[in-house]
Design goal:
Number of strands: 6
Strand content: 5-15%
Shape: globular
Distance between the termini: 60 Å
CATH topology: Rossmann fold
Mean pLDDT: 87
CATH class: Alpha Beta
Structural class: alpha/beta
C-alpha cells in the first residue's frame, strides 16, 4: 500500500510539473527562447557550448590538442608552478559561458548559479576528489555592498547543498580593495591581488590538514586563485582543488 501511495504521488508531481511547464514555460538561460521543461539551454545555444575535456594540463586543467597518453604540465605550469594542487573548469570562456557568467554577476539572474553548480559538480565528481570543505573566492566588503552578493559564494553554496560537502562561506576574506582584474596583463594581475586575502580567524584551526575545494567563476590567469591558495597553504591546509565555471583559453 505504501509503495502504491509513493508511486501515485510521483505520478501526480510529474503531471503537475508538466502542467506548470505549459502555464509557465521554461526559457533558455542565454537567449530566452522557450525550451523543454527539463532543459536550461535551447538547442542552438547548447550546440555553441565549448566544454573543456581531456587531454588537459594535470595541474591547471588547460586543454591540450593532442593526447600523449600520460599526465603532462602545460608550459605555464612547467615554468612557474602554481600553489594549488589541481584546477578544473567546465567551459572555455566563450560566447555562451560569458553570457551565463555575466547574467549571474551583473544582471541578478541568481537562479543561474544552481545550474552552473550542477555542471561543476558533475566535473568535480568525475575527478574523484575528496573534500572536507568548500570555500569561495571572497569579495571585498566594499564591492559586496555594491553588488549585494558574491557569485562565487552562490555557486559554492549550491555545490555544497548538492554534494553534502560542508560550506565555509567566510573561510577566506578579501582584506585589501583593489581595482578590478579585468583588462590587466598577467603580471599586473599578480601584483594587484598580492597579499589581498586572509583566512578568517575562527576557521584557522578548523582547516588545518583539510582538503579544500576552492570555487570561483572564471579562471583567467590564475592569479586570484593562486593567491587564495597561498593563504590556505600557509594556514596548513592539505590539498587545494580549484573549480571554476569557465576558463579563458589564449
Amino acid at each position: 500500500m505504501m509503495i502504491m501511495r509513493v508511486v501515485s504521488l510521483q505520478i501526480i508531481k510529474k503531471k503537475l510539473h508538466s502542467v506548470l511547464g505549459l502555464v509557465f514555460p521554461s526559457k533558455c538561460l542565454v537567449c530566452n527562447d522557450i525550451v523543454g521543461v527539463e532543459s536550461r539551454l535551447c538547442f542552438d545555444c547548447w550546440k555553441k557550448v565549448e566544454f573543456i575535456s581531456n587531454p588537459s594540463c594535470s595541474k591547471c586543467g588547460y586543454p591540450f590538442e593532442f593526447d600523449i597518453g600520460e599526465p603532462m604540465l602545460c608550459g605555464s605550469c612547467a615554468d612557474e608552478p602554481l600553489v594549488f594542487d589541481k584546477a578544473m573548469s567546465v567551459f572555455r570562456y566563450g560566447e555562451i559561458s560569458k553570457v551565463l557568467v555575466h547574467k549571474l554577476k551583473y544582471s541578478d539572474k541568481l537562479h543561474i548559479a544552481k545550474y552552473l553548480a550542477t555542471l561543476m559538480l558533475n566535473k568535480i565528481q568525475a575527478k574523484n576528489g575528496s573534500f572536507d570543505f568548500i570555500i569561495p573566492v571572497p569579495m571585498h566588503r566594499k564591492k559586496l555592498r555594491r553588488r549585494l552578493y558574491n557569485q562565487a559564494a552562490l555557486i559554492a553554496k549550491h555545490i555544497s547543498s548538492l554534494s553534502g560537502i560542508p560550506f565555509l562561506p567566510n573561510g577566506l576574506t578579501k582584506t585589501l580593495y583593489h581595482v578590478p582584474q579585468t583588462g590587466l596583463r598577467r603580471e599586473l594581475r599578480k601584483e594587484n591581488v598580492r597579499n589581498s586575502f586572509g583566512v578568517t580567524k575562527k576557521y584557522s584551526n578548523v582547516i588545518i590538514g583539510k582538503n579544500i575545494l576552492l570555487i570561483d567563476d572564471v579562471y583567467t590567469t590564475g592569479a586570484t586563485i593562486n593567491e587564495c591558495s597561498k593563504v590556505l597553504k600557509s594556514a596548513l591546509c592539505n590539498n587545494i582543488t580549484v573549480a571554476t565555471v569557465a576558463r579563458v583559453i589564449e
